[in-house]
Amino acid sequence: MPELPEVEVVRAGLERWVTGARVVSVDVLHPRPVRRDPRGPAGFALALTGRRLGVARRRGKYLWVPLDDADGRPTDDALMAHLGMSGQMLVQPADAPDERHLRVRMRLEGAAEGRELRFVDQRMFGGLALSDGGYDVPPEIAHIALDPLDEAFDDDAWARRVRRRTAGVKRLLLDQTLVSGIGNIYADEALWRARLHGDRPGDRLTARQCRELLGHVREVMTEALAQGGTSFDALYVDVNGSSGYFARSLSAYGREGLPCLRCGTPMRRIVFTNRSSFFCPRCQPTPRARRARR
Asked: For 226-273, what is each residue's pLDDT tens digit?
């Protein structure tokens, strides 16, 4: 699933290519991607037609585009998007061939004259919806915490909340009510850099360790952003269809059996909430409590 860097790459592409464009028509080619919009496919298309697209925004893994009226005056609404596992927001020339898994087509004029904004989704876990009153922050995602790259993120408050929890620190990194945007890949990378095992309970971390871990989260995400995100296949692309190449720089994720880049010990993989978690058994020793349970 795309994580913060991949979603931010898409957001930046939307800001560059479609800000100020007017939606002249909408074709919903499959109903599932708009299943969360109570208007239904026809109502979704009607409500979006004629609107102008503002500057795309993001919270964690969610995108939204504030909507103006046809004359460019702000409304209260927004177009909200979640990419799910394979969703793509592509800006294409109007005469470009349709993608195999094209689900929603928006024809644009004005700032993006002759282009279309296309939502492509092979597995259809993602989706689009009109958020009433969502211009500043869609109410559907208001409960989601800020992400570590947000200037308003409070490191000390996050550390205090983590240190009151008994859950493992990786589980806390993935808790979107504590901090958003961090997924499986970047959690493993940050924990490797911090020399922390993902099962280390939050209440066994010092405030300094929490702040250092956040620093590593920011470092790895910033590096990933500079390289267009992490793409393991053609599903994760920017608005122009280009894949990111941060996968070449991963130090932990996907490196089972390979030598740790720090100490040379073979990396291990364990199952974590139906996913894989990768770590160095020497640099990131298993907490004693876990050894006792075994």
From this structure: 876 554 445 545 556 555 546 667 899 999 999 999 999 999 999 988
- The single residue listed with the structure tokens 């990131």 is 284
Residue where the block lists tokens 């294409």 = 92
Residue 20 has phi, psi (to 5 degrees) of 90, -10
Counted domains in the chain: 2
Instruction: Judge if 129 and 163 occupy the same domain.
Output: no
Give the count of alpha carbons within 13 A of 137, CB side only: 9
In the 8-state DSSP scheme, what is residue 204? G
Q: In a 10 Å sphere around its CB, with 0-12 CB exposed, 13-18 middle and 19+ buried, how is residue 142 labelled?
A: exposed
83 shares a domain with 135? yes
Q: Which of 65, 148, 121, 92 is nearest to 236 (CA)?
A: 121
* Residue 94, pLDDT score: 94
| 13 CB neighbour count, 10 Å cutoff | 19
Enter the pTM of the model: 0.85
Residue 150 lies in a domain: no
Query: What tokens were used for 194?
Result: 């911090």
- Cα angle: 179, vertex 228, 281; to 5 degrees: 60
Q: What residues are annotated to the active site?
A: 2-3, 61, 275
CA distance 145 to 149: 12
Name the residue range of residue 81's domain. 4-141
- DSSP E strand boundaries for the chain: 22-28, 52-53, 57-59, 62-68, 74-82, 87-93, 102-109, 115-121, 127-131, 268-272, 275-279
